Task: structure prediction
Amino acid sequence: MLTAPQEFQRGWRTLLACSVGNGFGLSGFAFYTFGVFVIPLVDAFGWTRGEVSAAASFLLLGTVFTAPIVGTIVDKFGAKRVGLISMGLLAIGYASLTQLGGGIAFFYAMWLAMSLVGGGTTPVVWTRAVNLWFDKGRGLALGLALAGSGLAGIIGPGAVTALIERYGWQAGYLGISALILIVALPLIGLLFNDNAPSQNQTEQVDEPATHAGLTFQESYRTVVFWKIAIGFFFISAIIAGLLINLVPLLIDRDMTAMAAAKIAGVLGFSVLFGRIGVGFLIDHFRAPLVAAVMFSATAIGCLLLTLDSAPTWVVYVAVITLGLSAAAEIDLVAFLVSRFFGLKAYGKIYGSQLSVFYLGAAAGPLAIGMSFDMFGGYQQALYAGIVILLFGAIVIGGLGKPRDFPE
Result:
């Protein structure tokens, strides 16, 4: 049995490829840069903020359907080809967004289509490979792999905002498309290896047909399966809704678009270091307890954002707590699934959990956007977020001790 450092020495190439894939996929650039387009598109086409924000729900809605399908495919055929094809199609989708007209329905249809063809860029692909390569250091490895979205959150908002302010909103979409084609696809193609490694050699062998763990049918008959699903449904709704609306929310606090984008960049740092930190913590402490602490902290962050006269440093603290929960949620779902249910049907089980997760994440931006249009502000959504995050902390925090399946 290898130690954690030996696992990282052996699997760092695949880990780097997974981080790149997650950063440029639907969970990375697509999600963390969506908010910087809201006001430019409102100005360009006369849509309301709620209407533009609703497109994020279509972005996430497609993954509700694709996640279990993609999970089943990678369980049987591996992840590399799925990831590469899906990433290429996602780049084409970004380029197509430059052809938007004044019809909001086409905008929705484009994001739905991108979520369907981009389903192979979600964590269900990248975490599958990480779980095959890492056991002792699995939590930290998952955090590092999914930290790519944190880098996207750091780089994306400011870079895309600069493109938009200088060349228009179309340039923002073209810039993301170009980065996928020039950076993501070559790196994934060169570094990603989704074959299971041997336990005592540096060489790789073909992935065995089965791994230890529960079948999908066995897993969904357990109480734990539904606790994870229900808890993260509500948590993802609040986190996704606030992330998508963060830049408009900050602009409403009399910040400029660039100042708001810079704070959104701090969110990216929080996600990046949060994923690494959470990964380390769940390797050494009970994962449900780590989750409860993170989500409770974000509830406090929501409370801070309700304070209109709060100084800027308080806003930074609130955004950091939001980033920590954004960092923790996907990592924790992947880790909990692997520990409670094993790897035998990991792709399908995790894909099913992601479907519920993304269903909540799809509902969140729509609900918060509608709340803004109804009340003229984000206060009511923030109050609801406090209650929902505390509920999620209780549900996930009460899961009990995860179990290990021998590999």
Q: What stands out?
A: The two ends are 10 Å apart (CA to CA). The chain has one domain: 12-196+206-397.
